[in-house]
Amino acid sequence: MEPRSLVRRAGLVAVAALAAAALAACTPLVSPRPTVLPTRGATSVPSPTPTPTASGQVLPTPSPSATDSRDCGGAPVTVSDTAGATVLTGDCPTVTIAGAGIEVDLTAARAGTVAINGDRNRVEAASVAALTIGGQSNEADVATLGAITINGDRNQVDASGAAGAVTVSGNDNRVTAASLGAVSDAGSRNTVATR
Q: Phi and psi for 191 in degrees, rounded to 5?
């Protein structure tokens, strides 16, 4: 072998050894994680609710095992966070759902505009004047429904009674109602139909 070739090979071996040593120093140390069991008689306490503001109430969603029940009191309400159930009653001019995995029951409320912004949320209501969905895989089950606007994919809206105008700009959405107003579908594979 030529001396240059030996020097080059030795240099490559040295660089490889240094790289291996440097990367070995980046390996995290794994230590056992302690298991913490709940104590007997312990109960969970829901997060405190912020004071209502002039723009409306902001309701953090409680833990999935709890149900939060609130009266809108004629003010706009935002239900946010992830996973949980909220029951709203009274006059709810604007309800905004912002999060994932939230269930909102509006069957005992007078709902004006309902906006669902997030994924995998579910709304049940007796009557909604206008429904807007901006997200994926949301569900709305409403007896009577005004205008419907969907900007997202894989959402489902079911109105057991009449529904107003429907505007869809997304894919794989499904809207069914006893009767429908004007329909505008700017997406693909959407189903907008009467029963």
A: -120, 120
- Round to whole Å and give the CA distance between 29 and 25: 10
115-147 tens-digit pLDDT = 999 999 999 999 999 999 999 999 999 999 999
Task: Collapse the DSSP code of 57 into the 3-class scheme (helix H, G, I; strand E, B; otherwise coil) and give the result.
Answer: strand
Tokens describing residue 159: 């109105």
How far is 134 from 121, CA to CA, in rounded Å? 11
Q: Which residue has the tokens 């240059």?
A: 4
Q: Where are the alpha helices (DSSP H) in the chain?
A: 3-25
Q: How far is the C-alpha of 105 from the C-alpha of 122, rounded, in Å?
A: 8
The confidence score (pLDDT) of residue 42 equals 35
Residue with tokens 């669902």: 116
Structure tokens at 46: 């829901």
Residues 52 and 33: their CA atoms lie apart, in Å, by: 40
Q: Can you read off the two tokens belonging to residue 100?
A: 């994932």
**pTM: predicted TM-score of the whole model, two decimal places:** 0.67
Token pair of 34 as six digits: 């302690």
Positive or negative, the Cα torsion across 35, 39, 44, 45?
negative
In the structure encoding, which two tokens stand for residue 35, read together?
């298991």
pLDDT, tens only, 3-43: 666 666 766 666 666 556 555 555 444 444 443 444 344 33
CA gap 105, 82 in Å, rounded? 16
